[in-house]
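Exam revision sheet. Question 4 asks you to relate a sequence to its structure. Input first:
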Amino acid sequence: MALRHANRKLNTDKLIDLLRDSAPNFFAVSEVVGKWVWIQFTDKQPPAVTCVLAELGFHWNNTRQPWQHPCGTITDDRATYDPRKRYGSYFPAKVA
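Answer key, structure tokens:
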């Protein structure tokens, strides 16, 4: 849990670097939405995958259906709008 808490404080750039270096499969599908990083799969993932995502600091958003990482910008308020439309998004693996 200590690693999870530390990873949740990583900013966007540091998290993307961590994914690129230590979890390239997650980096390949990661999407930066505003300052957050989202990972979305078409199918349900096995427990081993969800465990790694949780250790990296991601949490499941049941409403939007992605794994989300707040990149140090943790807030109690839930967005009532589509963050992709408000803040924009991009896939770092396609930029690199």
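Marking note for examiners. The longest helix spans residues 12-22.
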